[in-house]
């Protein structure tokens, strides 16, 4: 983390993303607690996102600001989703700390996926039509009809609260979509 702060500057790094974490045993919980506590004590209010890619236990819930508790295909999400059993994931007050990522989606399934994400208490959702074929990486490209997808998510209402600013709700004031990149402007209310 220190190298990234040194390289890019503390003002350019808004948080840290810990990928491929485990969430189902005591040693994994202890490790995530150590990472989280170090990050918060060293870098203050930087956002901590943890990606186990699956449901978490209540024991690990305090040790990230946002958990990616689903990372899988649209088919799995629509047809074979396993319901969360932790009190944390089932508490609507925590939706701003739950993130679902769905890949290999069809544009015709966007609304169904968005609705399911809300029913499953995910305040954050990322959907892409990209898949793991041919390179094993499902996040190379923006989703087809990306502007329409963004509108569908935004039409549900306000964005979830930033876990680091729980009393302040951000307002998305604009998005510039060009090619494979998106630039957004966020205004605080």
Provide a descriptive summary of the structure in words.
The chain has about 190 residues and is an alpha/beta fold. The protein has one domain (about 1-189). Helix content is about 30%, strand content about 25%. It is built from 6 helices and 7 strands, in the order H-E-H-E-E-H-H-E-H-E-H-E-E. It has helices at about 1-10, 25-45, 75-80, 85-90, 110-120, 145-155, and strands at about 15-20, 45-50, 65-75, 100-105, 125, 170-180, 180-189. Strands 1-2-3-4-5 form a 5-stranded parallel sheet. Helix 2 links the parallel strand 1 (about 15-20) and strand 2 (about 45-50). The longest helix is centred in the N-terminal third of the chain and has 18 residues, at about 25-45. It is globular, with a radius of gyration of 17 Å. It starts with a helix and ends with a strand. The model is unreliable at about 165-175 and about 185-189 (pLDDT under 50).
Number of helices: 6
What is the residue-averaged pLDDT? Answer: 87
Per DSSP E runs of 2 or more residues, the count of β-strands stands at 7
Q: What helical percentage do the residues reach?
A: 25-40%
Widest beta sheet: strand line-up: 1-2-3-4-5
Give a topology summary.
Elements: H1 2-8, E1 15-19, H2 26-43, E2 47-51, E3 66-73, H3 74-79, H4 87-90, E4 98-103, H5 110-119, E5 124-127, H6 146-154, E6 170-178, E7 181-188
Parallel strand pairs: 1-2, 2-3, 3-4, 4-5
Antiparallel strand pairs: 6-7
